[in-house]
Design goal:
The protein is α/β, with parallel strands linked by helices and about 400 residues long. The protein has helices spanning about 65-75, 110-115, 120, 140-155, 165-175, 185-190, 205-210, 260-275, 300-315, 325-330, 340-350, 380-400, 400-405, and strands at about 10-15, 40-45, 80-85, 90-95, 130-135, 175-180, 280-285, 290, 355-360. The protein is globular. Bound molecules: zinc ion (ZN).
């Protein structure tokens, strides 16, 4: 009998009941409202939902676990709800430091035409604001784990393994403001009922299925085919994967100039309010951690090149790049250029250098084929995440941010 004939399909039903959000708690941006329940009913091959026998305690990745972590552990920072997903889930960010004060006198575009972005960013133009966000794609857990552990370092000096990160602690001292969003696409993350995927060596199929979706028989939609239909159909029996929100939209490729999704609008509102200099947009999908050159203002390319050197040379020193030579790994000529997506949109929304970082996955290895370094071990993945944030923050602090990268007109 062919295996496909006896394939047992497990139907998962994830129900988020009608819940009431309080507007009087520490979640200061939130307003009281009833939210429509969202019910998912999909057919996923049962083996795809197997987890490892043991999951490291530092691997906090689910929406509920992250929420509980923030509630229990953020004391120096402040947790705010910055928006609500299409499926009615709060999007939480953690803020440290002092926001830019005052306001500018013109639009971002106007400031470019005028020749000085201070006219948009206001009297605190020379302050430095760092922003990190993860899980724009809900099936990409590494960035979430990295962000949670970064928050642990900011709160206690140590990650959740008890390891100190003095480089992060030092880098943060030079910054004025930090904004960290562990899960942007909460709908996509909740759709995948796993804390951690099973490690499947060189088999990519399951990780890809969970990420980009597929049919009940386990075949994948695949990348980039998943991007042909936005919004995509969210009615089963196939599994939509973690890419889209509950409205079927991959917000990395939202309709930025048209009808924006609530997650995108939340990011637009947040970034125009805070005017970050640098945004790291943490994804999963590389053999070795990779920073992509965004489609952005040409004037920001030099800053990107310097950021690339800071990040990739240090990753190489720690054995987390294909080359162990920091000069080779840190050469920005290696960077691939993305397409127009949310990072370019955020640049043109607020002037930030917004950069996709692709992490290796904990669930499969592309390196085993070539017998390269085994970077997909969870400890290595976390080290790469924290090293990336450390170096990006160090870059921002030492280069002084946009006001120094692109000094304004001489008056
Ligand atoms: Zn992604």
């Amino acid at each position: 009998m062919r295996k496909t004939n006896i394939l047992i399909i497990k139907t998962i039903v994830i129900t988020v009941g009608l819940f009431f959000i309080s507007g009087t708690s520490y979640l200061s941006c939130q307003t009281s409202k009833n939210v429509t329940p969202v019910v998912h009913k999909y057919q996923i091959p049962p083996d795809y939902l197997n987890e490892p026998a043991s999951i490291p305690s530092f691997w906090i990745s689910t929406y509920d676990d992250v929420t509980n972590f923030l509630l229990a552990n953020v004391h120096k920072g402040k947790v705010e709800v910055i928006g609500t997903t299409a499926g009615g889930r709060p999007i939480r960010a953690v803020f440290y430091g002092k926001a830019r004060q005052g306001s500018g006198t013109t639009t971002f575009s106007g400031s470019l035409g005028f020749g000085d972005v201070a006219a948009f960013r206001g009297p605190d133009n020379d302050k430095t604001v760092y922003m990190g966000m993860a899980a724009v794609h809900g099936g990409e857990f590494e960035g979430i784990v990295g962000m949670v552990n970064l928050i642990s370092v900011l709160e206690t000096g140590k990650d959740l393994r008890g390891i100190e990160w003095p480089g992060i602690t030092d880098a943060v001292k030079k910054l004025d403001r930090l904004i960290l969003i562990p899960i942007v696409n909460a709908d996509g993350r909740v759709r995948i009922p796993l804390r951690m995927e099973l490690y499947r060596d060189t088999l990519l199929t399951v990780a890809e299925y969970l990420n980009t979706g597929g049919k009940p028989d386990g075949t994948i939609t695949g990348w980039p085919q998943i991007k042909e239909f936005i919004p995509m159909s969210m009615t089963g029996p196939g599994f939509p994967g973690g890419y889209p929100n509950d409205a079927g939209v991959n917000i990395q490729h939202d309709d930025f100039f048209g009808k924006r999704q609530p997650e995108t609008q939340a990011l637009f509102d947040l970034t125009v309010r805070e005017k970050p200099d640098l945004i790291l947009n943490m994804h999963t999908g590389a053999l070795f951690m990779r920073t992509d050159r965004p489609v952005c203002e040409p004037a920001l390319h030099d800053a990107f090149n310097t950021l690339f050197r800071y990040v990739h040379s240090e990753l190489a020193v720690k054995g987390l790049q294909e080359s162990g030579d920091p000069k080779i790994a840190g050469d920005p000529a290696l960077a691939t250029t993305g397409v127009f997506n949310i990072d370019g949109a955020l640049d043109f929304n607020c002037g930030a250098l917004s950069v996709v970082v692709e992490s290796p996955s904990h669930s499969f290895s592309g390196n085993r084929v070539s017998q390269k370094a085994k970077v997909e071990m969870p400890d290595n993945l976390l080290n790469a995440q924290l090293t990336c944030h450390q170096q990006a923050m160090k870059f921002l602090g030492e280069t002084g941010g946009r006001s120094k990268w692109l000094p304004g007109r001489k008056r």
